[in-house]
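go over whats below:
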Amino acid sequence: MRDAIAPDPLKGADESLFSQWTPVPAPAVEAPGNTSTAEVDGLLPQTSYSIGLRARGACGWSAPSFVRVSTGKRAYTQLSGCVIATAAYGSELDPDVALLRRERDQAAQRSGLVELAALLYARDAPPLARLVGRSDTARAAVRALLRPIMTANRAASDVLAAGTAN
């Protein structure tokens, strides 16, 4: 079987465009008459997709079958840890990592764009975090790059705390 997904159903779900769509893993092959299921990861919230599937049998490839689906609004959940900062500081419990995570989560609640950026970071950052975690030099460099951000975040937190205390 061959599956593909198109992020914009308005471009049309036809066989001439099917080969240009993003391929996704094919579902497991089942015996005739049984249902195959597949999960497609990495879909964005509140987005419409066209999904095409065609089977290969003794006579070759079938014509694609298409379905249009839309993902729902993502319910806010705390996003995963700051993996690069955690690698640089050595622990997700480090106060600087906790501050970065809190600021990121609060910003993601206020902005869909920030939430999308955080989701992309969570998806793509782990390989870089593993590299950072293996090198004292890389850990020190990341901490140095984060230092101005941490200083600004602490200053803003202090101002906000002073404002709520009055």
Notes: The two ends are 66 Å apart (CA to CA). The chain has a mean pLDDT of 79. Residues 2-70 form one domain. The longest strand covers residues 48-54.
